[in-house]
Amino acid sequence: MATLKAHINNVALHHTIFDLPFGLMAAALAADGHPEPWTLLWVALAITAGRAAAMAMDNLADLKYDSQQPRLAYRAMVRGEITRREAKAFIIICLMLMVAAVAQLPPICLYLLPVAAGVCLVYPYMKRVTGWVHLFLGLAIAMAPAGGWVAVRGSIDLPMVVLCAAVALWIGAFDAMYGAQDEDFDRSQGLHSLAVSYGAGGAFAISRGLHVTCIACFFALGLMLGLSWLYFVGVGIGAGTLYYQHSIVSPTDFSKVTQVYFLRNGIVSVAICLCAWLSYYV
Question: What is the distance between the terminal CA atoms of the chain, rounded to a whole angstrom?
Fold first, then answer.
């Protein structure tokens, strides 16, 4: 039981709130508000297992850096609660679960799985290559709504692309802000981030622009699909949440950057997903 708890801690299972709602929302939109329950089940399992594998891979790849970072001393692998061998076994099990779930969906999902999985498994190494690593994380998270949409429609369509862009920009911009607090550490280790490339002030300015663009994408999605006013209420709640998040932190003050700050971003995904779904009934 302790080992299972350690693995759950290692992959921060509660952070699934950032991608799972958008995966289910995409399935609902693709089905005009009435997706099949079994489709939702397999989509949810694929997203959850895939994200867990990617997170475990990220922590495994970064262990030598995380072990030197006091802010990450709570992580299970840093504390020695999970060995490298156990982490690798966990990754393999999660990938097998993901493949099994995707196999229950239309064949195109299985054909496209290597693309989605590739993005998620390559992301952990991008911080060694480019300061725009945050957008690769956003793209990895955006594979959730892409999978949800394709699982229902069996095709790649413009509304899906717009939704994925919105999600990628939302997460990428937030990650750039959150990661700016590690500017000095990342620079000392030869790692890349927007803060390392442009300074914390530059990273925050870029993040504001990306978040404005992401809200514009969510708004455009509603217009494209002819969603009701309730959907736009959800987008408004998401925009308000992002505005508040920007207002309580600055490039020189990260005191409010806590787990509460981090998880508050889940309001964006939950509000937009819930309002999008309910818009078909209002």
Answer: 44
Of the candidates 145, 157, 169, which has an alpha carbon nearest to the alpha carbon of residue 276?
145
Question: What are the pLDDT digits (tens) for 13-56?
Answer: 778 889 999 999 999 999 999 999 999 999 999 999 999 998 88
- Give residue 77's Cα distance to chain centre: 21
Give the pTM. Answer: 0.93
Q: Contact, 239 vs 213, CB < 8 A? A: no
Residues 173-214 have pLDDT tens digits of 999 999 899 899 899 999 999 999 999 999 999 999 999 999
Question: Residues with Cβ < 8 Å from 189, sequence gap 6 or more?
Answer: 65, 68
Length of the chain: 282
Residue entry with tokens 């790649």: 156
Only one residue has tokens 């995409």, namely: 26
Helix axes 158-179, 20-30, angle to 10 degrees: 170
Those residues whose C-beta lies under 8 Å from the C-beta of residue 8, and which sit 6 or more positions away, are none
Say how far apart CA 274 and CA 230 lie, in whole Å: 9
Residue 190 CB partners (closer than 8 Å, separation 6+)? 128
